[in-house]
Every structure is written in structure tokens, then in C-alpha cells.
Amino acid sequence: MKRRIALFLALLLAFSLTISVSAQDYYFSLDKEIVNVYWNSDGTMSLDYLLTFTTQPSGHAIDFVDVGMPNGNFDFNSIQSSINGNPLSISKDYQGTGGEGFAVEMGPYAILPGQTGTIHISVGRISQVLYKDEQDENYASAVFAPLYFQSSVITGNTDITVIYHLPPLVNPEEPKWHSAPTGFPSEPETAFDSQGRITYTWRNPGANGKTQYKFGASFPKSYVPADSIVTVKVPNAYQSSDTIFFILCIGLFGFIFLGIPLLTMIAGNRRKLQYMTPRISIEGHGIKRGLTAVEAAILMGESLDKVMTMILFGVIKKEAAQVVSRDPLKVEVSPSLPDGLHEYEVNFLAAFKEGNTKNRKNLLQEMTVKLVRSVSEKMKGFSRLETIGYYKNIMQKAWQQVEQADTPDVQGQFFEQNLEWTMLDRDYDDRTRRVFRGPVFIPTWWGRYDPTYSRPVSVSGGLPSSSTSLPSVLRLPGSDFASSVAVGVQTFSQKVIGNVTDFTSRVTNVTNPPPKPSSDRSRGGRSGGGRSCACACAGCACACAGGGR
């Protein structure tokens, strides 16, 4: 059995060496960490953190802090956080290296490179954190490890203070502390808090924020409900050991040879579609106004075939081009372009000029790369999160105008004005079908987009004006109109750019390339990142915490 255990541990080590995490550029010091741990009379735990960070000049702004929890039994609604008295948002988007937790979103209060900030985090209720004391069945054991971070993103020492507040009414002679971590005093400082509860305080000014330090105490279990104490059943090592070992080995090998390649493939495909960098330089403050619907679509990470269709609608509405054939797709460009075209529209039209058929895909790729970089440049100094919310609100208002129109013709007018903004809705097709239950008064320029509703007109002397295009009184069933737009998106995917994933991947390789390995900070994570607890052993009394990304 010992040989099998040794073999299993060796396999686990081999498995751990196969995992690599992409490099990041977060780099900070955790100057001070103070955590008050309250062990309550109902058997739950409450936490109160004060974390003082200093972002290194070469590091990324601390815009998120992931906070690992002992388990998933924490009350999300009881969590609060602030910095300098300013409330911070709490998110379920926890990206710690394991376990359970939550994320603090810094928003406009991100700690910029070279700056220091103290974050206050409180968690009101966490249950199932007490265990039966292994040395005294009449005692409950309370063990906790405060937040700690990945060594690749943190530097310097941390002044760590951990203060235990034992349950109310516990007598001074009853509780006992456990052995302290290395570097902390062997005996904690004892006192009473403002509520008369016994406190144990451990402090080490020369600790570090990348080590998991476990602190513990035990007290009579009579002070908490019996059902609040977790009972861990330890299986007999000699019962069914062969079966257990066999299952573990099969599961491990299956995950190594099947699970990891599959997860790697999924992650790789997902990254290929992320043509915008996850964070645009240093997150700034405020909303970037003035983006076009197309630029907002880029910021929101919409599919590039939809973005292309939005650009096509734009140049057609401005009478700079028209579709004269759908199969094969042929776009006729006006020999004299109108004023007011955006740079990406000019580049888009250049790809469709005669003589560029063979090189069209490359020209569209270059146009998209320039567009993505232009949006990134415009977003410098502004909050991406707030800006996306702003344009989503514009999209919703555009739909509201259409939905609340009194008559079909007014509804059609609003829809024509707001078409590109409504297309930002990822539920665009279905929503169009739901909103337009009756006929749609199609836009006056629709015949220049869909030649099946209007005979193409030569552009030798310029494109026809709106007055010579499809009459505005022509109506289509709402489902047909939505399908026509969807066909336009599919046409770009099939006839122009080919496989949209491959096209986007080529753009991504330029605008958001895979991170290069780094010798010192190759295992970094999201700002405020750290490790989750790793002490959930059978029979132990562990309620550790850690987290980050």
C-alpha cells in the first residue's frame, strides 16, 4: 500500500508539472495585512480584512482582488468592500487558482502603478468552518489561513496580523491555541475585545504575502450548535484499498492524457476569438463617449462577421457602395466616395474595389487590425467596464424606441435610424422576430443591400440616391427581415472572410498575441491574485482562505 501511495504521489507531481499558466504583468507588494476572524455563537465565521497594496511602477494597476474563501458556504450578500471610504463592487467572477471565493472590482479606484491603497473587505457569514478537535472530542477546532498571493506577482515583506475573536461567553481558562506558523510568536497575545470576547493575536512584521500561514484555536463545542461542527469520516485504509487506488490512477491518467489536451484546445480556441486584449493598458476612469456602433461592437468583442455586416450597412446607407450580387457576393463601390466616411469604412471599401478580389481577405484583415488598435488607443485613460455598460445602455434605448413606437411606419423609421445599435444585441435575430410580429417598413436603402428587392443600378456615375432605391413603403414580415440580416452575416463568413474563427485568429495573433514566457513572473495572474486554500485533509480542522487571479 505504501508503494502505491508513493507511486500515486509521483503521478500527481508529474501532473502538476504539465500545467503552465500564461504570463501576466501584475506586480505589487502587500505592505500590511490585518484580518479579524470572528468565531460566532451560531458556529459561523465572519472575516474583516485590511489589505494595503503598493503597485510596483512596472506592474499593472490593481483593478481586481480575488478573495478565496474556506468553502462555498459563504453569504455573498453579506460581503462589503471599500477603499478610502468609497464602496467597491463585489462580483461572483472569482478567478482564483482553486477553491471558492469572490472578486472585488476596483472600478475607478484601481491602484495605479507606483501608488498605495488600503482595501477594506468584510464577509458577514461563512458556515461549516468548525471541525471536531482530534485530541479532545469535547472541543471544536477552528483553523484559518489568511489571504496570500502567487509568488510571481508579489514582492517584499508583509506585516501580517491575525486576530481571533472566540465565541461569546467562553471563559478565559477554557480555550487553547494551536502551534503558530514559523516566524510568529509561539504564544499569541491574549486580550478581550469591545464585546468581551477573548482574542488571540498573532503578528509578524517580517512575514510575506506569498506563504499560507495557518492559525488555530480550540474551545469547548458546547458554545456552538452541534450541527455546526463538520464531521469528516476517514475511510479505513485497508478497506477496498485496491479499488480506490485503481480508480484514482485511472482518473488521473484519463485527465492527463484526455482532459488536459481537451481543456488546452478549448482555451486556445477561446483565446483566438479574443481579438481585444483583456485589459486595455491601464484601466482608467470614466466613460469613453463618441464611439460609433462599429467601434462599440469591437470593444464588446462581437463576432467579426457581424462587425463586417455593420460596416457594410454603414457604407450602403452613406451611398458609398451597393450589393449587386449575393452569390457570388459582389459589392460595387462608388467611384467618388462621399464625405464623412470613417477610416475603417474607407479601408473596407478599398478591399472591394475591382482588382482586389484575390487579396480581399488580407485587406479586410489589415482593416480589422487597424480598427481594433484604433479602439484600443481611444480607450486609453478610460474605463472599459463603464464604457461597455454605457454603450449597452444605448443599445437598450435604441430597442426601446423601436418597441414603444405607436405605428408600424414610426417603428420602421426608428429601426432604420438605430439599426447598427440594435445589432449590438447578441440576441438580435430572435429579438427582431419578437418585436416585429407584423410587417416591417424596410429602410429606403434596403434595395442597395438586398438586390432581390431592387434591380441593381449601375454606379458608373455614382450610386443612386435614396429616392431611386427601394420605396420606403415596401414591407416585409419581421421574421424575413431578421433572416435577411442573418444571411448577410453568414455571407461574409462564407463568401468573403472564410471561416470566421480562422479569420479572427489571424487578427488576434496581431492584436492580442499569446503572452511570451517570463523567467520571473511566468505564473502571474489577475491583479490581486493569489492562491486558494490547500489544507482540506481528512480530519483536519481547516478553514483556510486565499485567492486571486
Q: Runs with pLDDT <50, length 5+?
A: 10-24, 234-240, 269-273, 278-283, 455-473, 515-549
Number of strands: 20
- Measure the end-to-end span: 38 Å
Helix content: 25-40%
Determine the number of helices (DSSP H or I, runs of at least 4 residues): 12
Largest sheet: 8 strands, mixed
Mean pLDDT: 76
- What is the 3D form? elongated
* Rg on CA atoms, Å: 30 Å
Give an overview in words.
There is one protein chain. With 549 residues, this protein is an alpha+beta fold. 32% of the residues lie in helices and 21% in strands. The protein contains twelve helices and 20 strands. Strand 9 and strand 10 form a beta hairpin. Helix 3 packs antiparallel against helix 4. The two termini are 38 Å apart.
Keywords:
549 residues; alpha+beta; eight-stranded mixed beta sheet; five-stranded mixed beta sheet; 20 strands; 32% helix; 21% strand; elongated; disordered C terminus
